[in-house]
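ARCHIVE CARD
CATEGORY: sequence design from structure
SOURCE FIELD: tokenized fold
FIELD CONTENT:
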């Protein structure tokens, strides 16, 4: 009887392994097909003229300079606002806040906010940053709106990374006379930082491709100048791509494919830089 149960469990294990492998292969095939189609359509369009030109009504003369610079501005300020706020909130909730109904309510709301549609954050940003605070349709309004969008992800990643740090490390630090802040700053946070950076990478990767919140606050689709301050109007690559896709001319579809390739490259560079920093923290911990 036990042999039959063991054989059945092994069979179920093999079936599950095969199904998981097929699911992974299927996902990779679809992803590879999508990337291949985009690269075939847009790779020949990428040149210096495309990268250094402003949008135009003529597909052959249109470029992504203003959208690319706007994307860098938006992502820079979004990272500047979201990382310290998310990190501080996660540290407070995990290391300082006492367990009570109030903290449980905050935790539930953070978990729920992570699943709210992005357009809701756009409407919230329109009401608060654009109209109430008077930031208008500027880079500051866009970056603050995206900050609200990704804060729940960063806070959750920070808390989970802090939970993974062994409690014995904290107790050893307290035993040597360190304060709670010294323990968190010098012992706990360096160990948790790789996980925190991983969560930040995922959050920023989501933010760089968002269109709905920025459209809701009134980001422009056509800009023939570069922003110089955080209070200037802007556009970003996803909005520029959406604008080109909606045009009937085939040349704009080619431009959209080329813009998608550039957006993927920017995301890859951002992730590579963050992964390098994460590995640097891990190496420092080992030594």
């Amino acid at each position: 009887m036990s042999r039959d149960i063991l054989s059945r469990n092994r069979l179920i294990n093999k079936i599950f392994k095969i199904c998981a492998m097929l699911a992974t292969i299927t996902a990779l095939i679809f992803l590879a097909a999508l990337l291949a189609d985009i690269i075939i359509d847009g790779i020949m369009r990428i040149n210096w003229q495309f990268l250094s030109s402003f949008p135009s009504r003529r597909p052959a003369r249109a470029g992504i300079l203003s959208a690319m610079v706007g994307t860098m501005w938006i992502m820079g300020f979004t990272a500047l606002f979201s990382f310290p706020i998310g990190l501080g909130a996660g540290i407070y909730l995990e290391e300082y806040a006492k367990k009570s109904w109030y903290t449980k309510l905050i935790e539930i709301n953070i978990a729920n906010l992570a699943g709210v549609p992005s357009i809701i954050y756009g409407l919230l940003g329109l009401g608060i940053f654009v109209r109430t605070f008077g930031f208008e349709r500027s880079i500051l309004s866009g970056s603050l709106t995206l900050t609200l969008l990704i804060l729940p992800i960063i806070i959750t990643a920070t808390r989970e990374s802090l939970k993974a740090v062994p409690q014995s490390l904290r107790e050893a630090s307290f035993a040597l006379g360190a304060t709670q802040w010294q323990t968190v700053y010098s012992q706990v946070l360096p160990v948790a930082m790789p996980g925190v950076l991983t969560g930040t990478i995922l959050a920023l990767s989501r933010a760089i491709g968002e269109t709905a919140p920025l459209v809701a606050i009134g980001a422009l689709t056509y800009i023939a100048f570069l922003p110089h301050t955080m209070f200037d109007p802007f556009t970003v690559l996803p909005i520029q791509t959406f604008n080109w896709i909606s045009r009937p001319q085939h040349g704009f579809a080619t431009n959209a494919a080329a813009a998608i390739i550039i957006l993927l490259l920017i995301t890859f560079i951002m992730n590579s830089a963050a992964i390098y920093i994460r590995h640097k923290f891990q190496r420092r911990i080992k030594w």
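CARD ANNOTATION: DSSP finds eleven helices and no strands in the chain. The radius of gyration is 23 Å.
SHELF: design records, drawer C
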